[in-house]
From TrEMBL, chain A:
One of its GO terms (molecular function) is electron transfer activity. This is Electron transfer flavoprotein small subunit. It comes from the Bacteria. Residues 22-215 form the Electron transfer flavoprotein alpha/beta-subunit N-terminal domain. InterPro entries: ETF_a/b_N, ETF_b, ETF_beta_N, Rossmann-like_a/b/a_fold.
TrEMBL record, chain B:
Pfam families: DAO (PF01266). This is FAD-binding oxidoreductase. SUPFAM superfamilies: FAD/NAD(P)-binding domain. Gene3D superfamilies: D-Amino Acid Oxidase, subunit A, domain 2, FAD/NAD(P)-binding domain. Residues 6-366 form the FAD dependent oxidoreductase domain. It comes from Drancourtella massiliensis. The lineage of its organism: Bacteria, Bacillati, Bacillota, Clostridia, Eubacteriales.
Automatic annotation (TrEMBL), chain C:
Signal peptide: none annotated. It comes from Sellimonas catena. Residues 5-198 form the Electron transfer flavoprotein alpha/beta-subunit N-terminal domain. PANTHER family: ELECTRON TRANSFER FLAVOPROTEIN ALPHA, ELECTRON TRANSFER FLAVOPROTEIN SUBUNIT ALPHA, MITOCHONDRIAL. InterPro entries: DHS-like_NAD/FAD-binding_dom, ETF_a/b_N, ETF_a/FixB, ETF_alpha_N, ETF_asu_C, Rossmann-like_a/b/a_fold. Belongs to the ETF alpha-subunit/FixB family. The gene is etfA. This is Electron transfer flavoprotein subunit alpha. Keywords: FAD, Flavoprotein.
Length: 264, 385, 326
């Protein structure tokens, strides 16, 4: 089974602030890492590869520096990688980004399964996977806890989906896109050796010239939505201090927990 | 007795330890200003190997090493966990005769102070202590069971608490923005909160930031940064079946961190003329994790394949980069400066946890009593002028 | 001309999801300025109960498609049906709960309609364009909760479509409603390639700290006396997994694979209650993206209060003893 994994390079630290005058984002550190849930997607891909053979190709769109994330993904076991990098496609919203990823997947080759992490640690939209599926005209299932492939039914895949406080066994035809939950498995670690080996694994670089998407379909120009302002939350980053007797504090704690539990 | 007001900039191991030693004097009024959290920056990234003998500090400074070690043992005895002691013992590997001689002297000193220590040439015994090691191409190894890892962040917080108990004040989340100097004499400082404080002495305990802190009084503090690149490794079997000791080679050192192994390129293998190793950077731009250079992977792989092949296929759990800050002779800068009342307690490099107690003891004496010590003479700022 | 505020009535087992009911409150705030009608789209096997619920919380018009089975798990089919409905209704805005179903179905709808989808809004405000027409300022958190951004749907793209974080708006008070109901019988329901094979039995998730939604984290303070026993009872009571800092691992109070921080794990629970943790970076780096983070510590200067949402300067023992009595 050939599997594509979509990953995103996210900042190591979400510690950003806003310039009070220009309203531009100021990042404390430029250091990037693979979005944590994407590592769970890579691990699912590796387990399926061990069962069925085939190859795992990891895709990302981003600045040239995103090569680091791809090399790291290959250190975790992915066989090949593809970086889509181009000023023209940069800055797009989820719609414009999904178009680019879908086109890159099509150009790269045939895949039986496409995996991604459920939510990114920075934007946390949880939308791109489903949008890629729509572009490719194939099914998408989110909130995946585990994936099972049965050789006896090679055109289908089974997965456990967790939603409404229940677990459902779902089945779909292939190819399909599955969005994998953070923490659903324990990703294997890269080693010193695999990190060195990843330096020599294939990395294809696509620009929009390779994808041939109309410029009004990608990047900022092709995005139906636009960010017009950014601001820091009021009240700063200090915890709101609650006071009272231990009895009162216990009640306050219970209220907070019960309220948030209602939203789970 | 006349009160002496002392403002300390920086709440890492240097600042909290000095603050505590000052607070032992009745007439000291101490305030520590920390812009983030206590023991949270370079101190938190320190490997914290406080060993009875290794190459981190020359045997000539045995008193400094012993005083540091025993200060933390005492702290740990007063309240378990307050110094974060992990008593794993230390194995120092001799790969050449020079190292062997240093180890042997160190062992003799440790034994004279009442601790255990032996130089082992029986390779089977070395393998008993560290089964994953390769004993080829080594002469022997020094071993003691008595020392190990101490947690710099825990220690800093414990010193901070003790200093508060003695009447000192800790201000976290407060950045010093200005040092007030009049007629070449320190008068006080101003903070990011807009407050102004009067002090007789202001002490720079900002380690990697000292270059910037010195600029507040127009002082060029000759601090360089060497990179401390560290990895946390998960052993191939997930959990080692033996107690992994602090392991020292001239090129790198390692210690256990829970079930993982922390491994770092050694201090003395850093080349100040290699821009990959050393420079003058902005520590505010250091990421909390990550940031290591690619060459470091190759370096570690090559080292481990030869020296500790049993853990070469460990998983990479996480990594970080920290700056050791020191002058070009790798020794700290303590004491007076050309600006009257502006004191330095910085440049500890990779040895802050080991050296801070003895250095602070002596520096407190200098500030409170005006008495210098041989150590302060050795590590004085004027040696660099 | 597109007009109206349309709400996606997410439903499960014949009941309206609370997160969808909350959207009516968001819509009413928009309506105060724009005076538009508030409508809802329902796709379900048992529409009647859901329609009743929508009527009673103030929805003014309800568009429904009855299906022979619930199709909201089948994104491919559901998104086709909903896209067709919205094309016909032609609203100026569509509000969707930021739930797994809302996100994944409407991501496809947005692509079909080429209209954009703003994720996880926590505040919707009305702005006025130069020509006097209205638009919605869609405010949402980014980079955890460190920054908020305002997003708009650009001119030429419509409807304005956004998901709204559950729990931000409250469910309107119930009242006797009188909404017009339109059954859109002409809408085709396509075959789905997704099937639900079965509902699986519940599993005990508190063993795995990584996937746990609720985590209690203990620090050195929990090692004193028999505090840890209290922590365990507390964790049981709220259904939480227990993690801890290094001192707890060193004393073998918790296993190493439950240590949190740089030398341990990074966890992303929805709810995190930290007890007696001072908060060195090695530890706070290990907890991210929480929705609720409460810290209890006796030291008012503890660094943990800089990362938590709520803080209590208190003896954890006293708080927990009282909590267990509640």
């Amino acid at each position: 089974m050939d599997i594509a994994v979509l990953i995103k390079q996210v900042p190591v630290s979400n510690n950003v602030s806003v310039d009070p005058e220009t309203h531009a984002l100021i990042r404390a550190s430029a250091e990037g890492m693979i979005n944590p849930a994407d590592l769970n997607a890579i691990e699912e891909a590796m387990m399926l590869k061990e069962q069925t053979g085939g190859k795992v190709v990891v895709f990302t769109m981003g600045p040239p520096d995103a090569e680091k994330a791809l090399r790291e993904a290959m250190a975790h076991g992915c066989d090949e990688s593809c970086l889509i990098t181009d000023r023209v496609v940069a800055g797009g919203d989820t719609i414009a980004t999904a178009r680019v990823l879908a086109e890159a997947i099509k150009k790269y080759g045939q895949f039986d399964l496409i995996l991604g992490g459920a939510l990114s640690a920075d934007g946390a939209t949880g939308q791109v996977g489903a949008m890629v599926a729509e572009c490719l005209g194939i099914p998408h299932i989110c909130e995946i806890q585990s994936i099972k492939y049965d050789e006896a039914a090679p055109d289908k895949i089974e997965a456990v989906k967790k939603v409404y406080g229940e677990r459902f066994l779902v089945r779909t035809s292939l190819p399909a896109v599955l969005s994998v939950n953070f923490g659903c498995n324990v990703p294997r670690l890269a080693t010193l050796r695999s990190t060195r080996a990843a330096k020599n694994k294939p990395l294809a670089v696509y620009t929009n010239a390779d994808l041939n998407l109309p410029e009004d379909q990608v990047g900022i120009k092709g995005s139906p939505t636009a960010v017009i302002d950014s601001f820091e939350p009021t009240g700063g980053r200090m915890a709101e201090m609650l006071t009272g007797t231990p009895e009162e504090l216990a009640v306050k704690l219970k209220d907070l927990i019960d309220e948030e539990k209602g939203n789970l | 007795m006349e009160k002496k007001r002392i403002g300390i900039i920086g709440g890492g191991i240097s600042g909290t330890c000095l603050g505590y030693h000052l607070s032992l004097y009745d007439n000291a009024e101490v305030i520590v200003f920390e812009k983030a959290t206590i023991g949270g920056a370079s101190t938190a990234k320190s490997a914290g190997t406080v060993c009875l003998f290794d190459d981190s500090l020359k045997n000539r400074y045995w008193d400094v090493r012993l005083y540091g070690f025993e200060s933390y043992l005492k702290m740990e005895a007063e309240e378990k966990g307050s110094a974060g002691f992990d008593k794993t013992g230390t194995l120092v590997v001799a790969t050449n005769e020079q190292v062997e001689a240093t180890i042997k002297t160190g062992i003799a000193l440790a034994k004279a102070a009442g601790y255990s220590g032996e130089y082992i040439t029986d390779k089977d015994r070395i393998k008993e202590i560290l089964p994953d090691i390769s004993t080829e191409n080594i002469l022997g190894a020094g071993y003691t069971q008595d020392d190990g890892y101490f947690d710099g962040t825990m220690i800093s917080n414990t010193y901070a608490k003790k200093l508060q108990k003695n009447g000192g004040v800790i201000k976290t989340g407060v950045k010093v923005t200005e040092v007030i100097v009049k007629d070449n004499k320190v008068k006080g400082l101003k903070t990011s909160e807009g407050e102004e404080y009067e002090f007789d002495y202001v002490v720079d305990c900002t380690g990697p930031w000292s270059k910037f802190t010195g600029e507040l009084v127009g002082l060029d503090v000759p601090i360089w940064h060497t990179k401390a690149e560290a990895f946390f490794l998960c052993p191939p079997g997930k959990k080692l079946s033996y107690t992994f000791p602090v392991l020292k080679y001239p090129e790198f050192y390692a210690l256990r961190a829970g079930d993982n192994i922390f491994i770092c390129k050694s201090h003395l293998s850093m080349d100040l003329n290699n821009p990959m190793h050393a420079g003058q950077w902005d520590p505010d731009k250091l990421p909390e994790t990550g940031g290591t250079d690619d060459y470091f992977i190759d370096f570690l792989l090559d080292q481990l394949e030869v020296k500790v092949p049993g853990i070469v296929d460990s998983g990479l759990v996480s990594s970080w980069l920290s700056y050791r800050a020191e002058p070009k002779d790798f020794l700290p800068i303590l004491g007076e400066t050309p600006v009257e009342g502006y004191i330095l307690a910085t440049g500890y490099g990779g040895n802050g946890v080991i050296e801070a107690p003895a250095a602070s003891r002596d520096l407190a004496k200098l500030i409170m009593r005006g008495e210098s010590t041989p150590l302060l003479e050795d590590w004085a700022f004027k040696r660099l002028l | 001309m597109a007009n109206g505020i349309c709400i996606f009535a997410e439903n499960y087992n014949g009941k309206l999801e609370p997160a969808s009911a909350e959207l009516v409150s968001a819509a009413r705030l928009i309506q105060e300025t724009t005076k538009e009608q508030i409508s809802a789209v329902v796709v379900a096997k048992d529409c009647d109960g859901i329609i009743e619920e929508l009527k009673n919380i103030g929805v003014e018009k309800i568009y429904a498609v009855k299906t022979d089975h619930d199709i909201l798990f089948q994104d491919d089919a559901a998104s086709q049906v909903l896209a067709d409905m919205i094309r016909k209704i032609d609203p100026s805005s569509v509000l969707i709960p930021a739930t797994p179903a809302g996100r994944s179905i409407f991501s496809r709808v947005a692509m079909k309609l080429n209209c954009g989808l703003t994720a996880d809004c926590t505040e919707l405000l009305v702005g006025t364009k130069e020509d006097g027409s209205y638009y919605i300022k869609q405010n949402k958190p980014s980079y955890g909760e460190n920054v908020f951004v305002t997003i708009v749907t650009r001119d030429g793209y419509y409807p304005q479509m956004m998901t709204v974080r559950p729990g931000v708006y409250t469910i309107p008070e119930k009242s006797e409603g009188n909404a017009e109901v339109v059954y859109m019988d002409d809408i085709q329901i396509p075959e789905s390639r997704i099937e639900i094979a079965e509902i699986l039995p519940q599993e005990d998730s508190t063993d795995s700290i990584l996937s746990a939604e609720i985590v209690v984290v203990g620090g050195r303070g929990t090692l004193e006396d028999d505090n840890f026993e209290l922590v365990k009872q507390f964790a049981d009571k709220i259904g939480a997994a227990i993690g801890g800092t290094r001192p707890m691992v060193d004393t073998e109070t918790i296993p190493f694979d439950h240590q949190i921080g740089q030398t341990g794990l990074t966890i992303r629970p929805k709810i995190c209650i930290s007890l007696g943790v001072s908060g060195a970076i090695q530890h706070t780096e290990g907890i991210k993206d929480t929705k609720l983070f409460v810290a209890v510590n006796t030291d008012e200067n503890a660094a943990i209060f800089k990362v938590a949402d709520y803080g209590m300067v208190a003896d954890l023992r006293e708080v927990l003893e009282n909590y267990l009595k509640l």
